[in-house]
UniProtKB/TrEMBL annotation, chain A:
Keywords: Cell membrane, Coiled coil, Membrane, Transducer. This is Guanine nucleotide-binding protein subunit gamma 2-like isoform X2. Residues 15-24 have a biased composition (Basic and acidic residues). Signal peptide: none annotated. The gene is LOC109712045. The lineage of its organism: Eukaryota, Viridiplantae, Streptophyta, Embryophyta, Tracheophyta. One of its GO terms (cellular component) is plasma membrane.
From TrEMBL, chain B:
GO terms for biological process: signal transduction. It comes from Ananas comosus. Keywords: Repeat, Transducer, WD repeat. This is Guanine nucleotide-binding protein subunit beta. Belongs to the WD repeat G protein beta family. Coiled coil: none annotated. It comes from the Eukaryota. Gene3D superfamilies: YVTN repeat-like/Quinoprotein amine dehydrogenase (2.130.10.10). The gene is LOC109712847. SMART domains: WD40. GO terms for cellular component: plasma membrane. The keyword Repeat applies.
Length: 131, 379
């Protein structure tokens, strides 16, 4: 596989060989050690009084929030309402990647004549890959 | 209170939480009267169908010499930033395939990158547990490098995701292996808010992905190894607005739906899901078909919506890149089987700002641009 840039001209900032670094080197250089593991918030077994109190406080807060959620669920719309909104949100919206709908000519710039910074003409066909 | 009494209270509280969670689950189940696929079918939605040469690979961006891990487009359409295991951050003009910058990074293990809204800065973060900011208008040295403008330090774990707040040049959100998300002021390097951590409604495992709502940039969603997605309001860091359950594994990727009221997720469980932000309902599951004999279900590494939301792109660990019809919940194309497709895992993907092209990044070291090259029936 070629390691050089895809077009014949570059901005001059990058040389083809400069970015090459062998896979072998990557494999022998180990990644940094992971940060120290975080303290466990909830564990079985013995916990000191302070940590137990803190854990109970967190659980009490979670209980309150779950009770709030249960209350909200009493009057919440079913999923069909949201599904309808999803459908409606797409109506009339232009979609460059679909074969049907209103069109913007700028969407086809990926298949048009392109001029590089050094004036080297370079253009693509629809349906072709230029790499 | 004695330790013994506290332990009793702790056990009782855990039992109450479990019972309430079960009640929530049952109530939610009753409210799921339909999903997107069934609803769309009831409305007579016509499935999308592509011709074999409709979506084509129109560029391959060559230059990285290591696995590509992350990419991001500029808001002004044609430029892309990417980071890879070769220790490089590259800025591309996707239209010409030229590189405008190829910065050698101090830490080669980058996992995230992002373009600033004005396109003049980029951010990247990874296993250095920090986020580095580069000003692209700075003087380049003889090796093609730019000095780091600022380093955002403070995370106690790897940085897996970063995104600039869309309408604010100076604010950035990161997701980290320390289980938190952080909102940063890029100009001062200070943390404005921390989401999660010691707080009760935070993630309980690594945060792998964040997505900011472009319709309301006060809201963002995060995906985590704790198999949930969480919705946050940046004005209220003290607790998550909502937690979204359903996935059976790490949530690797989250992305807001174009209408700003829903979001998608992609997971190690091999599925993608669509959730409703306001109600918390799971609106659709996108499950790939696989052989009963095949024990290895490819994981979803990255997702993106097309600009209308009708197409939903999902990259998988086996090199597949499915194009889902969001409404009909069927796969309409697999970019992984087309001519000139990637030869390795799809690790990242993203749409150009005007939706006219998709960029995919892969462990095969390349980025590819895909666009509609067929005949358009204009209405």
């Amino acid at each position: 596989m070629s390691m050089t840039s895809s077009s014949g001209s570059t901005a001059g900032r990058v040389e083809a060989g400069e970015a090459a670094r062998s896979d072998k080197q990557q494999q022998t250089t180990p990644p940094p050690p992971p940060p120290l593991p975080l303290p466990q918030a909830r564990t079985g077994g013995f916990l000191g009084r302070h940590r137990l109190s803190a854990a109970i406080t967190r659980l009490d807060q979670e209980i309150l929030s779950l009770q709030e959620e249960i209350n909200e669920l009493e009057t919440m719309d079913p999923s069909s309402a949201a599904c309808q909104e999803v459908l409606l949100s797409m109506e009339g919206k232009p979609e460059p990647l679909l074969p049907v709908g209103p069109e913007d000519v700028s969407w086809d710039r990926w298949f048009q004549r392109v001029r590089s910074s050094r004036g080297h003409k370079w253009w693509t066909h629809k349906g072709s890959d230029f790499s | 209170m004695s330790v013994a009494e506290l332990k009793k209270r702790h056990v009782a509280a855990m039992e109450t939480v479990d019972a309430l969670r079960e009640r929530v689950k049952q109530k939610r189940q009753l409210l799921l009267d339909t999903d997107v696929k069934s609803y769309a079918k009831s409305q007579g939605t016509t499935p999308i169908s592509f011709g074999s040469t409709d979506l084509v690979c129109c560029r391959t961006l060559l230059g990285h010499t290591g696995k590509v891990y992350s990419l991001d487009w500029t808001p002004e359409r044609n430029r892309i930033v990417s980071v890879a295991l070769d220790g490089r951050l590259i800025v591309w003009n996707a239209l010409t395939s030229q590189k405008t910058h190829a910065i050698k990074l101090n830490c080669p293990w980058m996992r995230a990158c992002a373009f600033a809204p004005n396109g003049q800065s980029v951010a990247c973060g990874g296993l250095d547990s920090a986020c580095s900011i580069f000003n692209l208008t700075s003087q380049v040295d003889k090796d093609g490098n730019i000095p780091i403008a600022r380093v955002l330090t403070g995370h106690k774990g790897y940085v897996f995701s970063c995104q600039y707040v869309p309408d604010q040049e100076t604010r950035l959100i990161t997701g980290s292996g320390d289980h938190t998300c952080v909102l940063w002021d890029v100009t001062t390097g200070q943390r404005i808010s921390v989401f999660g951590g010691e707080l009760p409604s935070g993630h309980t495992a690594d945060v792998l992905s964040v997505s900011i709502n472009s319709s309301n940039s006060n809201m963002f969603v995060s995906g985590s190894c704790d198999a949930t997605a969480r919705l946050w309001d940046t004005r209220k860091a003290s607790r998550a607005v909502q937690t979204f359950h359903g996935h059976g594994g790490d949530v690797n990727s989250v992305k807001f739906f174009p209408d700003g009221q829903r979001f998608g997720t992609g997971s190690d469980d091999g599925t993608c899901r669509l959730f409703d932000m306001r109600t918390g309902h799971q609106l659709q599951v996108y499950t790939r078909q696989h052989d009963a004999n095949d024990n290895d279900v490819p994981i979803v590494t990255s997702i993106a919506f097309s600009i209308s939301g009708r197409l939903f792109f999902a990259g998988y660990s086996n090199g597949d890149c499915y194009v889902w019809d969001t409404l009909v919940a069927e796969v309409v194309l697999n970019l992984g089987t087309l001519q000139n497709s990637h030869e390795g895992r799809i690790s990242c993907l993203g749409l150009a700002a005007d939706g006219s092209a998709l960029c995919t990044g892969s462990w095969d070291k390349n980025l590819k641009i895909w666009a509609f090259g067929g005949h358009r029936k204009v209405i």
